[in-house]
């Protein structure tokens, strides 16, 4: 059964890479179509050579639509496969597959895909999906490099309900943070990239904000549940463990972003940089305990 679970992860990784390629193709063909449209406009007013459009270099609307459909379909397939992995692994172990770095990396990738799928269907901005899928693919490749064996749960994790709830809120919050990161990166790149037409700044700003609105309350619930669980497992609600501290810093960054956005209507590049910083703190919260140790060094 464990072997089946790893096959599911491998298949999901391959499909995510197909999704990356499809998003890239959709973006480049869309840009090619825009170049052709501009060339035809020049010919129409007599300001450009007819040869500029003779070859018909842009992709047809039907083909661009097909590529977009496949980009979304690959994401759906990856979510289904990773959900199947979670079910299979949970069936085998008797608890949520969130007890070690391998399992949590896959859950992290699942959360990223799930949230991005929502924004992908709503906004259809393949460049954001391209960035998010690259992060997801990296996380899955990292997960596949780790030990996949099942070991007995340490005493602190022997609360299946709290383990499942705490980590579930974490992975969805981190997934939303990754989407806001993708939107923020495109916002910051907008002035310097000429060859590819990026989405309007207002749209990118809105996506970053909406994803952060998902991130912050879920982080809040994650921290509260973690504190309750810590009191049960270790006899204290808060101990400034490196992972606890990193989670608090992440919560403060997203809280500060939402505060200045709502109170001062903070937008633009400074707001985008805050979202980039927020995702950096997410990654530090995920990987930092392996550098600094602490009670969370198992995860």
TrEMBL record:
- Boundaries of each Cytochrome c assembly protein domain copy? 101-296
Instruction: Kindly indicate where the leader peptide sits in this chain.
Output: none
Q: Which UniProt keywords apply?
A: Cytochrome c-type biogenesis, Membrane, Transmembrane, Transmembrane helix
Q: How does it sit in the membrane?
A: Multi-pass membrane protein
The record's Gene Ontology biological-process terms are: cytochrome complex assembly
Give the source's domain of life in one word: Bacteria
Where can this protein be found? Membrane
- What is this protein called in UniProt? C-type cytochrome biogenesis protein CcsB
Organism, per UniProt? Tessaracoccus defluvii
Q: Which gene encodes it?
A: ccsB
């Amino acid at each position: 059964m464990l072997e089946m679970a790893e096959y599911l992860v491998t298949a999901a990784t391959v499909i995510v890479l197909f999704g990356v390629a499809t998003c890239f193709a959709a973006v480049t063909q869309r840009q090619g179509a825009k170049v052709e449209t501009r060339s035809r406009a020049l010919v129409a007013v007599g300001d450009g050579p007819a040869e500029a459009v003779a070859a018909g270099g842009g992709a047809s609307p039907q083909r661009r639509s097909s590529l977009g459909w496949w980009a979304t379909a690959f994401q759906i397939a990856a979510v289904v496969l990773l959900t199947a992995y979670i079910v299979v692994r949970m069936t085998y172990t008797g608890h949520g597959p969130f007890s070690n770095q391998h399992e949590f990396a896959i859950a992290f990738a699942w959360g990223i895909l799930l949230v991005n799928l929502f924004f992908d269907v709503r906004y259809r901005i393949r460049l954001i999906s391209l960035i998010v899928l690259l992060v997801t693919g990296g996380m899955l490749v990292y997960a596949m490099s780790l030990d996949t064996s099942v070991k007995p749960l340490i005493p602190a994790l022997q609360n299946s309900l709290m383990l499942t709830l705490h980590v579930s809120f974490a992975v969805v919050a981190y997934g939303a943070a990754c989407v806001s990161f993708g939107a923020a990166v495109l916002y910051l790149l907008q002035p310097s990239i000429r060859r590819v037409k990026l989405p309007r700044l207002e749209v990118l700003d809105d996506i970053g904000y909406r994803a952060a609105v998902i991130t912050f309350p879920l982080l809040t619930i994650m921290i509260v549940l973690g504190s309750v669980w810590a009191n049960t497992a270790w006899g204290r609600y808060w101990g400034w463990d490196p992972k606890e501290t990193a989670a608090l810093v992440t919560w403060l960054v997203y809280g500060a972003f939402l505060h200045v956005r709502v109170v001062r209507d903070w937008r633009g590049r400074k707001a985008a940089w805050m979202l980039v910083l927020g995702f950096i703190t997410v990654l530090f919260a995920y990987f930092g305990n392996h550098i600094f140790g602490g009670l969370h060094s198992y995860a």
